[in-house]
Amino acid sequence: MAPNLFLTSYDLKLEFLVRSISLLLLLFLSLGNAFAGHHESDGQDDPSMIEVQRVVDLYMEAFERGDSALFASLIADDEMMITFGTDAAERWVGKRALMASFEKQISAFDVERIDISDQVIRLSQSETTAWFSETADWHVQVGGKTDIIQGIRITGVLERQAGGWKIVQFHTSAPVAGQIVEY
After folding, report:
1. Which one-letter DSSP state was computed for residue 181?
2. In this predicted structure, what is the pLDDT of residue 54?
3. How confident is the model at residue 162 (pLDDT cuts 50, 70, 90)?
4. What is residue 35's predicted lDDT score, i.e. its pLDDT?
5. Is position 26 within any domain?
6. Within a domain: residue 168?
7. Most exposed residue of 119, 153, 167, 176, measured as fewest CB within 10 angstroms of its CB?
8. What is the CATH number of the domain that holds 125?
9. Domain carrying residue 169
10. What's the mean per-residue pLDDT of the chain?
11. Residue 112 within a domain
12. Is the pLDDT of residue 125 over 90?
């Protein structure tokens, strides 16, 4: 059968529509494949990223173990650093003030475990600075009773120093239910 060389205007519009949809579908599938397997902490095999990941993991482990020596080894020796905790009064200037608070915290309660989720770690192109964010559920024991403090948000900044990667800033916050101010 010979091909129809005389297409109507409707046929041309339909062919254009089918080709456009096919092209958009192909583009969508290509983009989907480009981002498939994308994880928040890309570069996991990079030696610097592995070192940063280790420091971030040890940071939470120091709380779990109540290990002030480990905690101190991860924090920069900087008396100008500013750190925030979840309570309104928790603003510490300098490593000494932060360490004093850490000691008070580990004597006030036992951390059974900390479950981390939504962790993101990034490394600067120069590989001298890194930052992280994560959400933590703290399982703590106070007076023989276990409580779960859910959804604590933690962000921090690390810097490559002579002694390795050190935390130079972190901030923890507890989310409130709903919006404080509607927008």
Report:
1. S
2. 96
3. very high
4. 33
5. no
6. yes
7. 176
8. 3.10.450.50
9. 47-173
10. 82
11. yes
12. yes
Residues with Cβ < 8 Å from 148, sequence gap 6 or more? 137, 138, 139, 140
Helix (H) / strand (E) containing 65? helix 47-65
Instruction: Name the more confident of 176 and 31.
Output: 176
In the chain, helix, strand, coil percent, each to 5? 35, 35, 30
Helix (H, G, I), strand (E, B) or coil at 167: strand
CB atoms within 10 A of CB 167: 24
In total, how many domains does the chain have?
Answer: 1
pLDDT of the residue at 10:
52
Alpha carbon of residue 178 to chain centroid: 22
Q: What are 40-86's pLDDT values in tens digits?
A: 445 667 899 999 999 999 999 999 999 999 999 999 999 999 999 99
2/64: higher pLDDT: 64
Q: Sign of the C-alpha dihedral, residues 96, 55, 38, 138?
A: negative
* b/e code 22-48 from CB counts within 10 Å (16+ = b): eeeeeeeeeeeeeeeeeeebeeeeeee
Classify residue 8: in a domain, yes or no: no
Instruction: Give the tokens for residue 141.
Output: 């024991």
Q: Which DSSP state fits 144?
A: T
CA–chain centroid gap for 95, Å, is 23
Q: What is the identity of the amino acid at 56?
A: V
